[in-house]
Amino acid sequence: MTHKRFATYTTMSSIAENIKVVRERIEAAARRVGRGPEEIKLVAVSKTVDADRIKEAVLTGITILGENRVQEAEEKVMSDELRVTVSKVEWHLVGHLQTNKAKAAVRLFNLIHSIDSIRLAEEVNKQAEKTDKVQRILVQLKLSEEETKYGVSEEDLISLLKGIKDLNNLKLEGLMTIPPFFEDPEMTRPYFKRLREIRDKVEEAGFKLPELSMGMSNDLEVAIEEGATMVRIGTAIFGERR
Ligand SMILES: *Cc1c(COP(=O)(O)O)cnc(C)c1O
What we know:
242 residues; alpha/beta; eight-stranded parallel sheet; 11 helices; 8 strands; binds pyridoxal-5'-phosphate
């Protein structure tokens, strides 16, 4: 490698550069639909990412980290390398949660995006109660027929929300969805639009659900145009996963 070529990269790391690009994408999409970029929270999804690169992201201004597995998050939070870094940021669970991991999840995460059954909600509430925590949650909706995707169905949503209302150690803040993957991000639009419409309908029934967690690296613009308040971005910040 020539010295000159190397020097090109010394002013800004690739992660810093990637975050800058993602923030520009968020801002442009928000402006297009008359929203302010400050309305959209960037969750940097750090699954499979090593400690050095996570630190770098936090140094570059990332304030929310997302993980999809409880155990991986736990290893990171407990590690000597990351404990201090992680204590300064919010930590979100964006992946599926099993009831037998609820206790650890309550200990680790500021916000759980993936509540999808009353059984899971009750278990998280019970664990939160034990430590006097009010656990912030989102309810994950399943809007496609894919068998591999978790989430409550639209028809069961209201009864789940009613059940959650009775659980005093949960604070419900909104809804989350993961559409099927499409190469063409425009194909995800109907799912994001649907999540917003369902939210609006449910709010008329008296629930307050300000947060919409939707949009990933490939389709964050479409999600923001349709009302996302949290985008979950992995690849566009940290590069392709192994
Ligand atoms: C991995 C993951 C993301 C990030 O996906 P990218 O396409 O890498 O941005 C977002 N949400 C969930 C639930 C994930 O598991």
